User: Which sequence fits this backbone?
């Protein structure tokens, strides 16, 4: 498989099995991450691509979560996701692509890591090939369900030790 990871926060590099990737890069800004991601999509039409955009997290830490600046950052990343979707259309793989949009955590004030609903509730959007259109997920979803969902989409057997479930 052609698999890539393109991320702004370099900390993600320690969380992934980088030797399994065809392409692995970290960028200093979300704009550079977006540029690399859209080029990679068009050039390689990957089977799997992880993209991390960090500005929403950065703004949460510097300006606060649930502030006007925070919601402006969310709006901006929405436009960036639109550019990623457009890149799949330009590459001719849109109809065969499954999109998962997820945060890794919420936030409260200028931080996160606690157990409040604001810190643990995150957006989780599934769209494209393999997903029911217009379906509202009624069960609780955990971040570790992402890996199980991706494995199922790729037709891979989930390792026994995983606790996640395909959404």
Assistant:
């Amino acid at each position: 498989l052609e698999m890539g990871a393109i991320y702004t926060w370099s900390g993600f590099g320690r969380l992934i099995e980088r030797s399994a990737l065809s392409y692995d890069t970290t960028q200093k800004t979300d704009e550079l991450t977006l540029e690399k991601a859209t080029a990679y999509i068009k050039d390689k039409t990957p089977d799997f691509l992880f993209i991390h955009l960090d500005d929403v997290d950065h703004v949460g830490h510097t300006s606060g979560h649930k502030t006007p600046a925070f919601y402006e950052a969310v709006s901006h990343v929405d436009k960036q996701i639109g550019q990623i979707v457009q890149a799949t259309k330009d590459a001719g793989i849109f109809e065969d692509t499954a999109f998962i949009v997820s945060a890794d955590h919420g936030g409260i004030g200028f931080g996160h890591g606690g157990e409040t609903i604001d810190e643990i509730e995150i957006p989780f959007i599934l769209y494209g090939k393999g997903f029911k259109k217009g379906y509202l997920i009624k069960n609780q979803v955990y971040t570790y369900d992402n890996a199980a969902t991706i494995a199922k989409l790729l037709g891979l057997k989930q390792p026994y030790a995983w606790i996640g479930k395909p959404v």
Notes: Strands lie at 3-7, 23-26, 48-52, 98-102, 124-128. The mean pLDDT is 94. The chain is about 35% helix and 15% strand. Residues 86 and 106 are 27 Å apart (CA to CA).
